[in-house]
């Protein structure tokens, strides 16, 4: 199998994806309407996402060697497949934008007080472009290597903040309507396992592998839930004023606030995670883009992304407040279609149709992909 | 040739070269951050004649051979806080960075109106951390910062160290800006804010109001040799010193409700298990061990168990407090007394007197809280957690739900034991 990754790497990628967009701004945004019940909103959406993970496992079992494109064409035909890939490209592009904007505003507050957008772009874009260009395997290896450092930083932040823990937050104070609307508005921050469908042909999943992946997934979910709990416990009513959850729980106490820049632990963790998440989702954008326009190769995809980044993000969106509006207004619909409707349909169809183990659904498709430089590590 | 070949094989080197060529000289030749930005360690806000004066205690890093830091107080006046900050920046010739601001001092007069109106700009736009310690002062905040600067220069005591001591030992509650906001936005709309007064000093501790109240256990910022901070200027300017009398203020909806002394504060903190080291002074003890003696005990440990219930729709707040005390001093008016204070037992009479003292402190504190409708002891939250439905019903039936403390019955059971 070309450009395949191990189950451990897959687990690490899932964990990194789970942390995406949930450790800085989301706890505060959820608090605005759902109050401390934001914790349950996250819990609920995690549960729903887990169903998507199991539907992926099911799909992988039914189509062990086929690529996602082959599976989609098998079920929906070529035109619908193109539309789906276009939607995937848009979805992952905005995922990168959101991660960039929240990390950017965090670093702007903590490190650079002035505007440093261009500097950030110079630092971020080449790195994520390079990661997307070199392929999934090298990216997964890099992330795997740093993951334990990042996980240690995350756990350390939580451990230090427990020293200032006083009482649990007040739960069940929001109405059902607020709860549901909050879940809907912030659904784009989820869809953590959607990238798995794009790399379905690059992983091998035995029963043991699945258990290993689930171990990483539950570890990441556990950390995020603890973060939400601690954040709402420490800040309670003022949670809406604090936009950088992982960092803010560290400096909650006046005592810790006086200890130099203890938030450097959170800062490093967040910086590593943001880069890894952007790399992963940028890779997914490129994959979806190449599948949408098979005549173009990955370099075109990367250039397109960079152009969109300048035009859509810097010129049209500009501020992270605008980005949050995009996230809350129209991106939830896209998320529901891609993250819930599509796996549901795939699951239903795969139950209906016969298993196609070891058959090539579309002859020569793999070869075509190789020509475009998606499956093989790109050498220029 | 080798380089060209390497570039041909890995074009990402071009990006690296681009960054090196363009950004490295930029980094080398750009001026130091401290040339453009002043590090602010404390912020002070005053209001006079409808104008705001914002003062900054700034730290300017300069190369020298001692450990002495160069601090100065810079201020600006404007019609709004934002304008005053802008004016201060002009005076300073630098941008102001508030990330390191650990203390925010506000003049008492600003609490006559909703104080959040003057904090909004700083915390929302100017990135003033909500974890800074928030204190109120009777005098000008600018003078207060000057006094704190002298405090640092003369006795090496930083303002935040002083406040941290208060927060841990006197207020025993979080007195940060965030804690203030927590109370402000909470259903109780009440907070407790630290209070430090600035008094004119003549260089003699006996002249300070503090020494007049030495019996009440309040602390001064130093003896004659260790004067507190002095807002000194050159020439004949009056010296001012920071006095730490352990006072706080109760704030309701952002406005000053009442200034409270350490006695009331001890009453408020009776139900706070973290509140230790307070002294209990009982007078004229007569029993088998003591003969008209005055005793001073210190609370060394405390356990508090709180439970709630409703009777006829009215809430009852029950608290069992177990106080571990240590006898620190016996004042027997000059008569010889052979009691080892470390091993002295608590006689029933002493126990009763300590209980009465604590109950009276709590009762007085509760009276103040009820008068000002300021629940700063977390009664609302306790009922919300334990029996939300009944508590909400109770609140709805009240003529003024803000005055809920007056309708709650408190049952206090105190047990006194040696530490």
Task: Looking at this protein, list some descriptive labels.
heterodimer, A: about 375 residues, mainly alpha, Amino acid/polyamine transporter I, 17 helices, globular, B: about 425 residues, alpha/beta, GMP Synthetase, Chain A, domain 3, 3 domains, 9-stranded mixed beta sheet, 4-stranded mixed beta sheet, 13 helices, 13 strands, about 35% helix
Could you please describe the fold and organization of this structure?
The complex is a heterodimer of chains A (380) and B (419). In chain A, 72% of the residues lie in helices and 0% in strands. Chain A has helices at 7-19, 26-34, 38-62, 68-76, 78-110, 117-134, 136-162, 176-185, 194-198, 207-235, 245-248, 254-257, 264-292, 298-317, 320-329, 331-352, 365-372. In chain A, 49% of the residues are buried. Residues 374-380 of chain A have low confidence and may be disordered. Helices cover 34% and strands 31% of the residues of chain B. Chain B is elongated and about 100 Å long. The relative contact order of chain B is 0.09. At the A-B interface, helix 6 and helix 12 of A face helix 2, helix 7, helix 8 and helix 12 of B.
């Amino acid at each position: 199998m070309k450009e395949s990754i191990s189950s451990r790497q897959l687990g690490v990628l899932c964990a990194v994806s789970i942390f995406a967009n949930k450790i800085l701004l989301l706890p505060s945004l959820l608090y605005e309407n759902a109050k401390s019940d934001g914790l349950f909103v996250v819990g609920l959406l995690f549960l729903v996402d887990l169903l998507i993970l199991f539907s992926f496992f099911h799909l992988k079992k039914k189509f062990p060697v086929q690529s996602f494109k082959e599976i989609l064409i098998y079920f929906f035909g070529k035109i619908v497949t193109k539309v789906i890939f276009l939607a995937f490209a848009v979805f992952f592009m905005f995922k990168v934008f959101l991660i960039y904007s929240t990390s950017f505003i965090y670093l702007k507050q903590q490190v650079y007080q002035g505007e440093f957008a261009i500097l950030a772009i110079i630092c971020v874009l080449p790195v994520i472009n390079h990661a997307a260009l070199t392929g999934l395997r090298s990216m997964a290896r890099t992330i795997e290597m740093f993951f334990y450092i990042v996980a240690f930083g995350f756990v350390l932040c939580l451990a230090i903040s427990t020293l200032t823990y006083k009482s649990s937050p007040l739960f069940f104070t929001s109405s059902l309507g607020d709860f549901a609307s909050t879940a809907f508005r912030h659904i784009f921050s989820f869809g953590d396992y959607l990238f798995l469908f794009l790399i379905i042909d690059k992983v091998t999943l035995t029963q043991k592998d699945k258990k290993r992946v689930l171990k990483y997934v539950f570890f990441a979910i556990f950390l995020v839930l603890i973060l939400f709990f601690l954040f709402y416990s420490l800040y309670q009513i003022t949670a809406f004023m604090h936009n950088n959850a992982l960092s803010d729980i560290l400096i909650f106490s006046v005592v810790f606030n006086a200890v130099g820049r203890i938030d450097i632990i959170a800062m490093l963790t967040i910086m590593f995670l943001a880069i890894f998440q952007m790399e992963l989702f940028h890779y997914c954008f490129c994959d979806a883009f190449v599948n949408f326009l098979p005549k173009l190769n990955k370099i075109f995809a990367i250039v397109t992304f960079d152009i969109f980044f300048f035009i859509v993000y810097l010129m049209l969106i500009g501020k992270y407040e605008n980005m949050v509006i995009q996230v809350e207004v129209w991106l939830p619909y896209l998320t529901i279609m891609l993250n819930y409707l599509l796996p549901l349909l795939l699951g239903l169809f795969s139950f209906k149709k016969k298993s196609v183990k070891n058959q090539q659904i579309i002859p020569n498709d793999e070869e075509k992909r190789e020509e475009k430089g998606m499956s093989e590590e790109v050498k220029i | 040739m080798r380089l060209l070949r390497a570039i041909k094989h890995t074009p990402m080197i071009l990006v690296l070269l681009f960054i090196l060529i363009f950004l490295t000289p930029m980094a080398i030749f750009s001026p130091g951050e401290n040339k453009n930005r002043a590090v602010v360690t404390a912020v002070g806000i005053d209001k006079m004649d409808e104008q705001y004066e914002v003062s900054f205690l700034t730290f300017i890093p300069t190369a020298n051979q001692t450990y002495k830091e160069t601090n100065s107080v810079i201020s600006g006046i404007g019609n709004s806080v934002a304008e005053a900050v802008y004016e201060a920046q002009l005076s300073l010739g630098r941008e102001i960075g508030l990330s390191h601001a650990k203390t925010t001092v506000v003049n008492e007069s600003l609490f006559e109106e909703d104080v959040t109106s003057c904090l909004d700009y700083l915390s929302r736009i100017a990135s003033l951390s909500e974890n800074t310690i928030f204190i109120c002062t009777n005098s000008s905040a600018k003078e207060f910062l000057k006094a704190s600067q002298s405090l640092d220069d003369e006795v090496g005591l930083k303002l935040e160290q002083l406040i941290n001591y208060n927060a841990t030992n006197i207020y025993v509650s979080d007195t940060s800006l965030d804690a203030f906001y927590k109370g402000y936005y909470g259903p109780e709309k009440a907070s407790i804010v630290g209070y430090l007064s600035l008094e004119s000093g003549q260089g003699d501790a006996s002249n300070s109001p503090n020494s007049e109240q030495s019996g009440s256990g309040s602390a001064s910022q130093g003896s004659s040799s260790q004067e507190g901070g002095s807002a000194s200027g050159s020439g004949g300017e009056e010296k001012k010193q920071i006095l730490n009398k352990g006072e706080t203020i109760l704030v309701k909806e952002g406005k000053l409700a009442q200034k409270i002394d350490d006695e009331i504060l001890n009453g408020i903190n009776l139900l706070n298990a973290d509140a230790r080291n307070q002294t209990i002074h009982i007078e004229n003890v007569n029993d088998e061990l003591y003969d008209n003696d005055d005793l001073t005990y210190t609370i060394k440990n405390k356990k508090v168990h709180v439970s709630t219930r409703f009777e006829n729709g009215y809430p009852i707040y029950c608290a069992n407090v177990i106080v571990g005390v240590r006898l620190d001093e016996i004042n027997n008016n000059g008569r010889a007394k052979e009691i080892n204070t470390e091993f002295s037992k608590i006689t029933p009479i002493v126990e009763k007197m300590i209980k009465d003292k604590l109950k009276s402190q709590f009762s007085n504190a509760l009276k103040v809280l009820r008068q000002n409708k300021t629940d700063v002891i977390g009664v609302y939250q306790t009922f919300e957690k334990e029996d939300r439905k009944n508590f909400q019903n109770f609140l709805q039936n009240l003529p003024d739900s803000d005055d809920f403390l007056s309708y709650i019955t408190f049952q206090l059971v105190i047990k006194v034991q040696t530490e």
